[in-house]
Specification:
The structure is a single chain. With 439 residues, the chain is an alpha+beta fold. The protein is 58% helix and 9% strand. It contains 15 helices and nine strands. The chain has a six-stranded mixed β-sheet with strand order 1-8-9-4-6-2. The chain has a three-stranded antiparallel β-sheet with strand order 5-3-7. α12 runs antiparallel to α13.
């Protein structure tokens, strides 16, 4: 029986594959062509919609050639998107781009129309013309052209960094919402309670090939721990890279039966790179990458970094109001702890969102001002218990500004929060010079 890890990775492959739906479209087009041929003799076609053999052959041949050309055109656009993402945005974004359903739909429609028209061509003879099929092929071409225009409109808008940042933010927040909802359906114990891992592990399950942790079967971990009557502790959280031979799981307690390491290892999905499926922080990683690329000496585009900071702020506000746990202790139906899963805390999300932008963008007044406005907004927008982390980030920003701007006037400008970076008006308490500082 396939392990959960295999099924998870298979699902990831299907979601990111660009060829599966087009191949299904080819098969569907061929089957629909056969159905149209079978119906042609049973359905009456008005005289005005009948075709000669020469006309039908010419129309279907043109459709076949046009669909092949359009398939090549869409593939070329996809290659350009890959080049832009790798060169000017973030290679990590490709994990999200591969999931674009519109591109797969367009490719499937073109492939299906090609197969449909090609299937009809073999039926044409001196006295036999599939009039119904030729008409339907023409309608399929019309739909294909409309979908091509929709795809081009979406593409020219979505290649902008700010559009990509918006998509990454929405994807990350959707994953975060699903994660929080799934957490609410689990029986969680207080993470401040006694650690169920009181003793050294009785056994460890190691990784064979290594890779990035892409997902965990949390429910499967609880069921397995209940079956063995033990506590299973996950050694790495989702997103971590696990080297070959490293510990994946720790088995605490005395299992009632022998533990099957391979079966337990199959509850942790490892892959070549991180994926957003169970890792909302990966979307924040993509946002930080785009901002960092914009602030590089090759890009030198602080305005794009400011626009990305808008989406980073929206993401952090949502995270700051969510229930986060540094460690999840999951129980079975009887309330007994069965699995310990590491989580990601507020400070880690905050550091991921602002650290690199601060380090690479401190030389830009625009970025410093927008980053301060972001942190000032978080001070009032997150619960009290999470504000000390925000104040620490403000202190780090102050230190960076002190080092970068020795002049009093420019330092004051850099300390002034502005939601537009420059031109939006100062709204931060840092407008006023600090006691003992340069005026």
């Amino acid at each position: 029986m396939p392990t959960w890890s295999f099924r998870f990775q298979l699902g990831q492959y299907v979601r990111t594959s660009l060829w599966i739906l087009p191949v299904l479209g080819l098969a569907a087009g061929a089957l629909l062509g056969e159905a149209a041929l079978a119906l042609d003799d049973r359905v009456g076609i008005p005289t005005g919609w009948r075709y000669t053999a020469t006309t039908a052959t010419g129309v279907l041949t043109a459709i076949v050639g046009a669909m092949v050309a359009l398939l090549g055109f869409v593939v070329t656009i996809g290659v350009l998107a890959v080049q832009q993402a790798i060169g000017t945005l973030s290679p990590r974004y490709m994990r999200l781009w591969y999931r674009n359903p519109l591109q797969k739909t367009v490719l499937s429609l073109f492939a299906g129309t090609f197969a449909f028209a090609f299937t009809l061509l073999r039926r044409i003879g001196p006295d036999t013309v599939p009039d119904l099929g030729v008409t339907l092929a023409g309608l399929a071409v019309a739909v294909s052209l409309v979908m091509l225009l929709v795809y081009l409109n979406r593409f020219v808008h979505d290649v902008r960094p700010v559009a990509i940042a918006d998509r990454a933010r929405r994807t990350g927040l959707r994953v975060l919402r699903v994660s929080v909802e799934a957490q609410g359906r689990c029986l969680l114990l207080d993470e401040r309670a006694d650690d169920p891992r009181r003793d050294a592990p009785a056994q460890v399950v190691r990784s064979e090939d290594g890779g990035a942790v892409q997902g965990l079967d949390v429910a499967g971990l609880v069921r397995a721990a209940s079956r063995y009557d033990c506590v299973l502790a996950v050694a790495h959280r989702v997103g971590d890279f696990v080297p070959p031979g490293a510990v994946l799981l720790e088995v605490h307690g005395t299992p009632r039966t022998a533990v099957d390491p391979r079966r337990l290892a199959g509850l942790v999905a490892l892959g070549a790179e991180r994926t957003v499926e169970q890792d909302p922080a990966f979307a924040l990683r993509v946002l930080a990458d785009i901002a960092a690329r914009a602030l590089s000496s090759a890009g030198n585009d602080p305005t794009t970094a400011v626009q990305v900071l808008n989406h980073i702020e929206a993401f952090l506000h949502a995270v700051g109001r969510s229930e986060l746990r540094g460690r999840h202790v999951l129980a079975d139906r009887d309330g007994r702890p069965r699995a310990v899963v590491p989580g990601r805390g507020w400070e880690e999300y905050l550091e991921l969102g602002v650290t690199e932008v601060r380090e690479y963008g401190v030389g830009s007044l625009q970025v410093c001002r927008r980053l301060r406005a972001l942190l000032d907004g978080l001070l009032t927008g997150v619960p009290d218990g999470r504000r000390p982390a925000v104040r620490r980030q403000l202190a780090l920003l102050d230190d960076a500004v002190e080092r970068e701007y020795p002049e009093g006037v420019r330092r004051t400008l850099a300390r002034t929060g502005d939601r537009q970076g420059i031109g939006g008006g100062g709204s931060s308490p840092a407008d006023a010079p600090r006691p003992g500082g340069d005026a």
